[in-house]
Amino acid sequence: MSDTFKLSLGNLLQVLAPPLIWFLHLTTVYAAEALICIGPAGAAATMMAWTIALATVAALTALLLTAWTLHRDNARHPQSLGSSRFLRGVSHLLILLSLLGIAWTILPTVFLPTCA
Amino acid sequence: MIPARPCWYLFGASMLLGGCTSDVQSVMNPSSLQAVQIVEVAWFLFGFGTFVLVLVIVTLLLAIRGPLRIRQALARESTVIWLGIAFPAVTLTVLLVYGVWVMRSNLNLPHGGSPVSIEVVGEQWWWRVLYHAPAGPQIASANEIRIPVGSPVTLNLKAADVIHSFWVPSIGGKVDMIPGRTTQLQLTVDRPGVYRGQCAEYCGGAHALMAMDVIAMSSSDYAAWLERAATVPATPETDIGLHGRSIFLAAGCGACHTVRGTAAAGSLGPDLTHIGARRSVGIKTLPLTRENLMRFIVDGQHVKPGNLMPEFRVLQPQQLEALASYLLSLKAAD
Amino acid sequence: MVDAVSYPNTLPRPSEELAQLEAIWATPGGWRIVTDVNNTVIGLFYTATAVLFFLLAGILALLMRLQLAVPSNTFLSQEAYNQIFTMHGTVMMFLFAVPVVEAMGILLLPQMLGARDLPFPRLGAYAFWAYLVGGLIFFGTLFFDLAPSGGWFMYPPLSSSQFSPGPGADFWLLGIGFIEISAIAGAIEIIVGVLRTRAPGMTLDQMPMFAWTMLIFAGMIVFAFPAVILATLLLELERAFNWPFFIAARGGDALLWQHLFWFFGHPEVYIIFLPAAGMVSMIVPTMCATPLVGYRLIVVALIATGFFSFGLWVHHMFTTGIPALSLSFFSAASMAVALPSGIQVFAWIATIASGRLRWTTPSLFVLGFLVIFSLGGLTGVMVAMVPFDWQAHDTYFVVAHFHYVLVGGMVFPLFAAFYYWAPAFSRLALSEQLGKWIFLLMFAGFNVAFFPMHLTGLMGMPRRVYTYPAVMQWDVLNMISTIGAFLLAAGIAIFLVDVVRSLRPAMSKTAGNVWGAATLEWLPNNVYGLRSIPAVTSAYPLWHHPQLAKEIEDGRHFLPGSITGLRETIVTSPFDATPQYLLRLPGPGWTPFLAAVLTAAFFMLLTVKAVVLALICGLLGIAMTVVWMWGSDLKPLPPVDIGANLKLPTYATGSLSHAWWAMIVLLLVAGSLYLSYVFSYLYLWTVSPQVWPRLSALAPIAYPIVSALLLVLGSAILEIARRVLPGRSRSSGAFVGLAGLAAAALTGALVIDVLAQWRAGLRPESDAHGAMVYMAAFLQGQLTIAVLAMTGFAIARSFAGRLDRKRRVAFDNLGLLYHYTVGQGLLGLLLVHGFPRLAG
Prior knowledge:
Helix content of chain A is 86%, strand content 0%. By secondary structure, chain A is mainly alpha-helical.
């Protein structure tokens, strides 16, 4: 594999990461709700709150990391043109959209009880 | 019990549905706390949708033939960000919070106290209704659900064969009936009346005909009805009635149908203990009259194609007549 | 790469160069045209077939509208109506919407990207013929009263053998499974085509937007279709062999189907919509004579849609009694997916504002699309609101909603595309005068037909009812809908008249760039694409380089003829489109056509339980595929000069090879199929933990350990085999032995696992757990068979001197599949042996 191929692969991952993080966050909290609600009723709300908090912190960290790699690459290859630069721009915006998506996912937990 | 409804929405309703509105099974004519809540959401959404659609069309027209200044402003990438990202982000957040808030208040509606609990089982293609009274026999009926107004009612929904969906629009949203599961619907109906509903999940064959009535009555009427429904119908007093009963038992009707107090104890088809007091025959396809009853017995496959009951064409006209008389006599003594 | 004065190739070109190029790419005449594999020929056939299915399913819609026009109508019987609405939905979704988009991709992409053809022409031909034959047979069941009647989403238990005993549901399952496979074949072709056969220098930010949408379309197919393929497999196994995946009494669950089906079904809507949006993104800049505003924003929107649409499947299950909080997660995801559509709509509006819109037929269809699709999107936001959906779900409100989204979002852009691109493929353009009438009829007819359905839905009319009593008072609105449907049909009928009058498909000397468009498909094209392939330096090459057409015709740019005497195209790097090697493409041949017909026969004969005949057809089909593959992977030639002293190799291995990319995509399909399986296993456990065995009832742990060791050993042996590939100084003996051993290890691991489960007393029919365990073996078995076949193929090639250290793509691909199969096998062992120990 050539270096340019590896760089391109990095670009690809940067583009795919944000929405993938959103997807994993969504499926995690959904699966957690499904699993926790099978168990004893008493602990459900606390367990759910913790799961959502942990999943959200993990997702935000991963998004931040992606953003950091974008800035690093921009600093390293300030002159790069064409696909790489373009994909980095795309990745930036996808991070924003994914953040909004994650915010929307956790919003209902403020209002709704677990397992009702 | 009945919340005040803003008059703009009544006005809007008549504007939108004017002329062709039908209240027989309408979402927009709510009679329970739950359905009222949803109608409010609906009007909010219609207003929102109209606003955004008008916005898109006006922007589009301006983009095509608007003044140059406006077109230049619209052509900027930042406009795409404002109108395409920022505006939806804000409005959709509002919508999401509103939707979730309505779900929460739906959960918070009263369903404690002494809830009336009724089991409804969806079957191809009719509704089995079971009242679990605290004392006395289990009362079974079909395609008619009687409930008291003003107090919370819990419907426990099951399916005997395929997936069905319980839906009576005027008193609430639909809930699926899924084999192997029990789902629940909570209702607090606020006005006595007869509310029509029908199966909302395609269940094969005669899905289109799988309708029912929910009959909401005052709680005292309901209690009285429940008491009557628990009784065993009296033995027919007329000859024709007695003749009908012997035909009923001899023709094998009891293999599938139950009439409490007789040897007929089948459970495949609807319980007929008080069929004489019901409103229809062949799930809502026909009003309950002597002619329709006889027609269903000999020609059921035309009334409700694919239903499980064989057509009893062997019965002679006078036998059929007697059978119908017997069935119509099956009701609680007043 | 190319400055204005120096061109890759000098003039004059040798006199015989063009004649030779034309001879090599000549379309076979007469009935032999079925042997052709060229993308233009296949693309035109493909599009025409998809339009045929659109018309057929449209006729079914008209029959339904006639039935519903008046209450208690007896025009159609209950059973006929149920079959017809099932077929209408199924045919529109599976035989029209996805194929027509794929067809447009196959037709347009090479021309747009400056390639001579797609990288796997025979695969494209196979996908088309499989679809045509399978689709016609499937539609034909309607005439024999054998059509499925369970609705296009075929919910069990209604579709189970108990409640649908006839062969209708089997036709649906096998027919659809088969068409899905054809769609995946097309998707692989499109992904590799877009990423590896772009003109030199066409970076991702200069790629035509339609190519972006097709790339994401194909990517979504790779991840969405496996879920429904698994679902159809499970249901067919349940129907045929009584494995209770969906039967509640034995621990199965009807909702498992809904999860799998909608994990496919919701992305499906966007799979259909995105390419249509791509067409709009091509048409709007041309009609406004201005570049697209917000190119990058649109790409962001496309990628976001691609992902967000996978988080919506529970959106279709709001009424199944799932907890409120879970529902609200999916309500939130439904909001998220509305954002990218907003971006696209306003980007198109901005583009219109930045130019001057010409009132052409394509423009009108685009405007109609914008209005109808916006309304459909807004009702989509409404049904994403959980409480409202409790009422609207499964009513005519939803019928109205998804027709606004699908007809507005896909059919209108498609008609715009027909009018827009016809001049590129026909000697005459379609009629602008008729086109405007057609638009008016279709736009008015559509709204008259479908807007009232919002109201009938709110008035309580459920979908999928074959009749309704007069007392419901739905008759006036239904009559209006029926009138609208016939108006819409009249528009489409006039379109057919226009097609007959004006469409004269041609490989060359077409009407050409009548719109003043800017992308490569508007250059003078022939069946081989462009005479010579330019280096691309802008997203709108024809606007920036007005004399391009002449230069290309003269042969000044890259690859002005055929160097090797075969059909060829340039393979470029996936991101910056640097030329990497010259790919020699196959010409016409019988194998794709015959293999497709035989595969279709295999599936359909299986449905009617003619097992022996089916097996014969299946084996013959495999034989055809072997013959076809035997001729691929051509012998490496010395590097060739395509112009500008650019020496390209004629052979590539590893990640450079287009075949490697295709295999990776195929493995992604297999991987997402297996993940769907893992989900199903765990899901059924959450529903029915009581049927999962106690520790004492499990197969002894020694068995899976031996299986796992065999798998790992197999991988190691295959790697050693890689090192002893036959070469100049080495015969094929050691290689053959090791490859055979590796295949045996893989088979052994599977056999041991199945024996262990059987001896532990586990049976697939007994309960959902048993069925799921044997399902893992079934999926592993499928791959093992494929590995065995490929090993045999590699061994045969090594004997024939067609596989050696240099010419080794056949082995590389076997290696990829083998290691993937080992990985999947290990995961499977961990799941079926480990999970019960963990959970028990």
